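Sample pair:
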Amino acid sequence: MQAIRKWKLHPIRSWTHKLSLWGFISLFFIGVSLSVAITACSSRNADNTSNVNSTVKDNIKLTLVSYSVTSEAYKQIIPKFIELWKKEHQQDVTFEQSYEGSGSQALAVIDGLEADVVHLSLDLDVQKLVQSGLIQQGWEKEAPNDAIVTQSVGAIAIRQNNPKNIKTWADLTQNQVELITANPKTSGGARWNFLGLWGSAIKTGKNEAQALNFISNVYQHVPLLPKTARNASELFFKKGQGDALLNYENEMILSAQNGEKFTYVVPDVNISIDNPVAVVDTNVDKHKTRLVAEAFVKFLYTPEAQREFVKLGFRPVDTTIAKEVEGKYPKIKTIFKAQDLGGWDEIQKKFFNEGAIFDQIQTKIHLKQV
């Protein structure tokens, strides 16, 4: 019996011993695994903290893409923002900048120019970026004033002493008047010029057939179509071409500040030229620049930035600044907006699509592009 008991107890003790041994081994490995996991988590947390700190300390680059006539304003505004960001965040910001015709700039961004912020001449060009998936719907509600950051009106530059006696839009149809304006296919400013002419006819009682006849007569006096509003100004001021120039009021003011000798008139039936700004969502997320891009857009609405726009001839969107400088600008008797002409979707289809009204005018009178 003792032998039997020993024989039965031996496997039980052996099994118990093995169980204890495996339990110890299992606990050992669990402990090691937990230790490794904790160490790894600690390392990841340390890395994340390091990355955050690195992001805060590293320099950051922001790419601004805008239309040509804003370049002088940004020479003053960008250094102010860089100084403010450095003071508040201990981080250096550098800017890459691109200035061209608004329509061309929108296409360049779609084709791969990785703008973080766009300030374009018209809503339509921002909508192209929305349709391409680069900017999210509702962008116009992400900045003050429905994302309109600068405003101007249409103006006519004329030679000193006004030898052709040009005072209104209608005077541009006089015989022997040579008019310089940019190409609406590539320049946002030129589209505003076109709409200013068309709207002035409609707002003074003409029907659409009469408005078409009027604007066709105006373009008969246009010898060529430069690519951008800035190019048009250079032809008029630097090369002495033309008796009159259509452009933004702010471009006239800036040219006078730069010493050009000329006169300009602001017709009292005029269009409100509203220029939007937007963050390019896809690119700021890719570049990890959303925080600084949104801060830069917000800065453009501050009195400090708006005063810089005013110095260069833009009409301020800030009501306080507008009161400060209301004597600086001629008063407009009748002012209308793009929405009064159907909004930009309708405007594009009616006037600027392939085969639309502008193409018909261009084909009829053989406008030359440069």
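The two ends are 117 Å apart (CA to CA).
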